[in-house]
Sequence to fold (657 residues):
Amino acid sequence: MSAGEAVPRLTARQVTRRRRRESARRTWNEFRSHRSGVVGLGILVVFVLVALGAPLLADATGLKVTAATGGVLEAPSAEYWLGTDDNGRSVLTLLIWGARVSLFVGLLATAISMVIGTLVGVASGHFRGWPSSVLFRLTEWFLVIPFLPLAIVMASVLGASLINIVLVIGVTSWPGTALLIRAQTLSIEERPFLERARALGAGHWHQMSRHVLPNVMPMVFANTTLTVAIAILTETTLSFLGLGDPLRVSWGSMLDDAFGAGAITTGAWWFIIPPGICVILVVLSFTLIGRALEEIFNPRLRRGILDETSKPRRRERS
Amino acid sequence: MNGPLLEARELQVRFHAGRGKRPVRAVDGVDLAVGRGEIVALVGESGCGKTTLARTLLGLERPQDGTVLFDGAPLGYGSGDLKRYRRRAQLILQDPTGALNPRQTVYESVAEGLRIHRAVARKQREGIETSEVDLVSAALAKAGLRPPEGFFMTYPHELSGGQRQRVVIAGALALEPELLVADEPVSSLDASIRGEILALLLRLRDELGLTVLVVTHDLGLAWNIADRIAVMYLGRIVEVGSTEQVLQAPEHPYTQALLSVVPEVEEIEPVVLAGEPPDPSRIPDGCRFHPRCQALAGGAAEAAGVADRCISDPLPVIAAHGGHRAACWLAEARSPSSP
Fold:
């Protein structure tokens, strides 16, 4: 500790904030050393910028069938870089606006799935006895139900709208997360600091929220990015099957339209390949990021914060 | 208020090992008293039930039989009762590295107990002007981490083993408990740090009047800090007395064997115990130590005429109160005056 570092009155909140900043910085530094993760992040940033800037990049009137300016299934030209669809709309415009729906559905569905999966996983790992078995059976039950038929049934019962698609994907994709988090929770429950917390008088809520959750959070985070990929694919699948929101263009509904318009047989590759490639790129970017995060956060895959010898003491910082 | 602070009466803790298996009798009838301001060492080999006994005394394990009395009142197992008890009795674990959450700073680890028990609000209600930062600083300083503010932002992995154990102790002290149960407090620390931590425990007893129960396998450690020693073997206390009595005139062959292998003790010929390590699901008949007893094997018991009793007659539980006692037929035969 240098003399210049005056550490006078720190409130508890300031201490916490500093700590968070510090750990975020450490994670970022480690993430930067994973080249594939950085590539994934780059791709993702491009797509997010495109989705956010859609109104600037392409006029929304280009989505209207009635306001279509091009011919039917025109090949790419200087005017229509990626050609037109069967209604004469620019495929590029559809692609740009489709990014919004795909990313929105992917992220929101993942958020739902993560919340359910983490709650169920932590609770079933923390409690003993019947609550744990009930939650575990529930997880297994959801896990063994064939996913796509369940999603199709739910989507047709609830009706086709964007929010319903989000709900369907969120509610059907949590069991994998729950199992992962449960396993992690069980291993954390055995650590002595939970015994110490119990001896200090901590209740279940305190133990779960203060000790288990912060220690499984990295796993949740890494798993999130992998789930986003699955959610986007599922959205594409459901839209392709005609269960998507009919009022909104997504990459999946573009593929569905292309299929319906016979783009495959007429050789209108510009209608099929761009949305397919976009789906693949976004899914790939999330997977690359997820892999990198997993490697950073999974204690078994790295020399981590539990291993004090591998890191220099940071007390001497100026 | 002259009774012992902590007392165990005929405590029994059994674990079910699974269907068709015998239950494991980890604590098999223990009477123990710890007086106020006293340091008592509970000594025994691995697996003898001393950690289970310590956890039971803290209410972390529920006994099947018997009672734990704290300050003369039996321990309640409702969540409110236990929470109140936690403010007065705290635990220090063996491995300070594992006992601290790696994602929490020292400040948060020490403040945890204060937050759980809303200690700051409680103090302010009593008219004491204080803040969480003040209480954490005071606890760290009491545990010998100075200046306390310099440790607020550090993580456990940035500290040495001794410093971590001090943080754990500070976390316990922050609640201003009356009783500390230390489960092997120094066995994972370097020899050079051990002395410091033990000196800290002694100082805390002197300055704060803390009562300490130290669980250890190391008789040498017990010798250094304890006022009284209780030797445990296979779920039961086999010898109890003041440190001088137990270590200078051990009566139980097991204590003698333990003492003979303490490196500092040179005048006794080391006794290496024969036989299997004990299995708490199969406690032998008679004296529970007899299959490994060097006095029985060496013929000393035969000479005193108690060998049959050693093999077949169970020994009574040693009473918590009173002087130096040993649960041994041979010891009893040699000193007929004792009950």
In short: DSSP finds 13 helices and no strands in chain A. Residues 1-7, 303-318 of chain A have pLDDT under 50 and may be disordered. Chain A touches chain B through 37 residues (CB under 8 Å). Chain A has one domain: 29-62+77-300.
